[in-house]
Amino acid sequence: MKYVALLRGINVGGNNLIKMADLKMCIEAAGFENVSTYIMSGNVLFSSDETDEIALAKKIERTIEKNFKLPVRIVVISHAQMKRIIAKMPKDWGMKPGWKYNTLFIFPPYDANTVLTEIGALKPGIETAFPTDGAVLQAVEFKSFGRSAFSKVVGKPIYKHVTIRNLNTTRKLLELLNDV
């Protein structure tokens, strides 16, 4: 099966630095196949016969901690799940000028409805979000970001249970999974 491991909080602001070439070698040494990385934010594509995403995430977390001495949280998304997430995007998703579109990938055991509840009431007209399979699709108007509920998510406990990728990265990861 094909997967992408999404690492949370690496290579951000000069902290938790991991070279992607080193990460690729580390994941290959752990026995995963067809390993590749995409951009520096910690996206690792791979194949495995294992079908338990949580078990895969734990194995990769242990491998990274052993090799890089970094405790990194990881969510593993299957190719099929990524297809479902992308399929839930409205046809005009990403088309509104002046808006930013993100995917909040959720660490189990949390779910999309819990994340949305923890974020709180959204501000109509400047932001929107909806649940998908293991993720929340979120959009916010750039100029109004400071007034949005999403601008406050970093200070909320739920922030530790998501890893965020922008729309272009989310779409590119599906494209790359199609090629793994």
Account of the protein in words:
- By secondary structure, the chain is α+β, with helices and mostly antiparallel strands.
- It folds into 2 domains: 2-79, Alpha-Beta Plaits, CATH 3.30.70; 82-179, Alpha-Beta Plaits (2-Layer Sandwich), CATH 3.30.70.
- Helices cover 31% and strands 27% of the residues.
- It has helices at residues 20-29, 53-68, 79-87, 112-119, 167-179; strands spanning 2-7, 33-38, 43-47, 74-78, 99-106, 127-132, 135-141, 162-166.
- A hairpin with a 4-residue loop joins β2 and β3 (43-47).
- α3 crosses α5.
- The longest helix is centred in the middle third of the chain and has 16 residues, at 53-68.
- The radius of gyration is 16 Å and the shape is globular.
Give the SSE order as H and E letters.
Answer: EHEEHEHEHEEEH
| Proportion of residues in helical segments | 25-40%
How is the largest sheet built, in terms of strand order? 2-3-1-4
Low-confidence stretches: none
Give the CATH architecture of the largest domain.
2-Layer Sandwich
Using the coordinates above, name the CATH class of the largest domain.
Alpha Beta
Tell me, what's the shape?
globular
Mean pLDDT: 93
- Major sheet: 4 strands, antiparallel
The fold-level CATH name of the largest domain is: Alpha-Beta Plaits
Q: What is the count of β-strands?
A: 8
Strand content: 25-35%
